[in-house]
Design goal:
single chain; about 80 residues; alpha+beta; 5 helices; about 45% helix
Length: about 80
Amino acid sequence: MVTSVGQLNGDHWDDWLASDCPALLIHGTRSNTLTAEHAKEMVTRRPNTRLAELSTGHAVHETDPAGFAAVVREFLDTL
């Protein structure tokens, strides 16, 4: 677990920008982990990325499973 958590820290831009396939970034607007500014930068820098924002914390799928499913379904319908 410690090793896994340690891998979360760092610069992951190269990995994020390595593909331009359609992607959905779901941002919990009350997240203490991902700021709104960083989420917007992720979308701006990576082509074909859509941002969906839900009024939750970081674990969107846990705190708003219906909202999470709805935005994922909507995204997949566009492919």
